[in-house]
Amino acid sequence: MFWILLDSIGVHVHVLRATLWAQMRAKLPNHTPSPQYPRVLLLVNARTDDDRTTISVKVALERTGAQVHTVTERADAEQWMRHWDPEVLVLLGWSAAMGDWLQRLRLAPHQDDLPFLVVGSGAQDDHEGMDAVAALETGAQAYIPSSLGPEPLTAQMRNVLKNCERTRRPVQVGEMETLCIDLVSLRVWILGQEIRLPRRLFYLLHYFALHPDEVVSNDQIADILSEGKGAYLAPNTQVVKIHRLRKILESAGAKGWLETVPGFGYRFSPPKNI
Q: Is 65 helix (H, G, I), strand (E, B) or coil?
């Protein structure tokens, strides 16, 4: 009887978990397009299960000033395309099924002119060569091998975004009254006061500003500071950089905006009118 009861509990837990997951999957995106920066949808191929690669690609895309949303299912990507209206689609990893899906997708109304890029998932050279040919023949703007690092992806994305209407004016994050980061002039204002930041701290603050009130992990910070190159950074290096950024913020009157979340990372919490 005891074991039957345990089995019953296990079944109910499994059903409940499956129900909750189905509800989460079924929920349509309710985000409205941002008037401040371009929207990029990142679709991660199911074969690509390396979280660090996904983080590196997302950071490289956000370095262009884009707002990036990540999905792992093609059905979810279609929903986001309908409701979020992304300006560029980026595929991490390639497969024959992905090519067939794109061919079908481009027949749909308002999707035939959606530009897309493909980032290799680190396959063997000969296999990646075939993937590149298949992706380009399907209509990709570019195929970027993951072995080249994040810089070519960032550069190629900037070129694609030049054709987007939103990038015809300076790309800014935030409002001048609180925090403003201009990715064209590479200038930062806090509470109306312009501050000077070295390159790494500039992009670190930019990442924080794109993810207000979210916990940014140490792995994400390491990837930003290494500019996506995957170089090893001693924990003390991250601590020093965070300490320096926090002191700069405090000197500009932004004390308490960057807080430590013990065991997880850091949270950037500026005033809500940012």
A: coil
